[in-house]
UniProtKB/TrEMBL annotation:
Annotated gene: glnA
Quaternary organization: Oligomer of 12 subunits arranged in the form of two hexagons.
Positions that bind Mg(2+): E129, E131, E212, E220, H269, E359
Family, similarity comment: Belongs to the glutamine synthetase family.
Stored Gene3D superfamilies: Glutamine synthetase, N-terminal domain, Glutamine synthetase/guanido kinase, catalytic domain
Cofactor note: Binds 2 Mg(2+) ions per subunit.
Superkingdom, natural source: Bacteria
Residues bound to ATP: E207, F223, R224, F225, H271, Q272, S273, R340, K354
Organism taxonomic ancestry: Bacteria, Bacillati, Bacillota, Bacilli, Bacillales
NCBIfam families: GlnA
Protein name (record): Glutamine synthetase
EC numbers on record: 6.3.1.2
Amino acid sequence: MSVENVLKSIQENNIEWVDFRFVDLAGRAHHISLPASAVDADTFVNGVAFDGSSIQGFRGIEESDMVMMPDPEATYVDPFTAHPTLNVMCDIFTPDGERYERDPRSIAVKAEAFLKESGVGTAAFFAPESEFFIFDDVRYESGTNSSSYYVDSEEASWNTNRKEEGGNLGFKVRTKGGYVPVAPVDTQQDIRSEMCRLLEEAGLSIERHHHEVATAGQAEINFRFDTLKKTADNLLVYKYIVHNTARQYGKVATFMPKPLFGDNGSGMHVHQSIFDGDSPLFYDKGGYANLSEMALHYIGGILYHAPALIALTNPSTNSFKRLVPGYEAPVNLVYSKGNRSAAVRIPVAAVTPKGCRIEFRTPDSTANPYLAFSAMLMAGLDGIKRKINPTELGYGPLDKNIYDLSDADKENIRSVPASLEEALDALAADHEFLTEGGVFTKEFIDNYINLKRDEAKAVAIRIHPHEYSLYFDC
């Protein structure tokens, strides 16, 4: 959409406020609203000022002035505001007109440009399957003398004997038993359908929605693939609409990877492929899973760099509570066709040449999508450049349920890092593939690692409630 068309849309939709948004390093959106009457063509040239020192990981107070530059191609009408509001995604610039190198969206732009300059292809397409939970009640605290959390859901397996609910308590979702049941077990058909309706109105093309495996309201909505930056934009819209629709229903949605102990966590399986114009480059009929040599080398890059990559695709301490065997989490660094226990899966059901793709199943939605998608693309391109053969390096293919293998068979299979600290160590040691073409800078990576180490330390030094169960009577 051109600036002219955005301004026309403001008039036609009787927009009262224009909400300018940007994303921080953690992937959370921030916003400043201007009266629609104050927004004109100059706004898209001069931008909107904000204080960068108040955003974690951005700038110091001595250089705090920053500018949001609106992107007329990334707008939608907010479905939740009482006063008609148009949301506009922005890029971040310094006051002297330079793109800010810590702006995650600018990294996505550079990654897409690097792909074209490499001569490998013209566009990379991404499609995340971002799972989430819908709870009825969430409470938590972390203080000097107490630490706790509590979540509840009307459909949770632990509520078959809840007196307050009355009758019909038998229709609860069993632990690990929530994959696509019908009502009355699935209580959230309508709320997911409403989320999808609003997502469609915001411009996303919805492919399906369903209940996921875990008890207590785990859900998934799939939207159609798009280019790297556009998909990252769409994922921010997706999370915003999921969060706020749940709130309108008196519930709360979370993309936290592991909010429940003893049941499946929420991942963000990321489908990806490269095209040259209209020609898919990952398809080769007759190859393993109909994959081209380029696709195999792309997989090689993903798996070779996975320990470092995971610092960007699974960037929370909670991520590694999900990445444990036994809960469908892809902890094994191998590839396979159709095998959901592998870190990289090649979908084979009903796949056309243009639909041929690889799926990296390790990531979760604590990731900043601009950083995560860019890092995956850079790892894959490094695999293509260096012709990394995943089979020669022992990454598969492994078309077996890896969880059922003997300990001896598992010995030669690499696993994901066991903690955020391990992943950050890997990123500190292996990041040259990210700095190719200046897509990521060394300064950005160092800053990111320091911020994430602070998070890991904040969790590590706190007393865990389970430690009382283990040690209080010593």
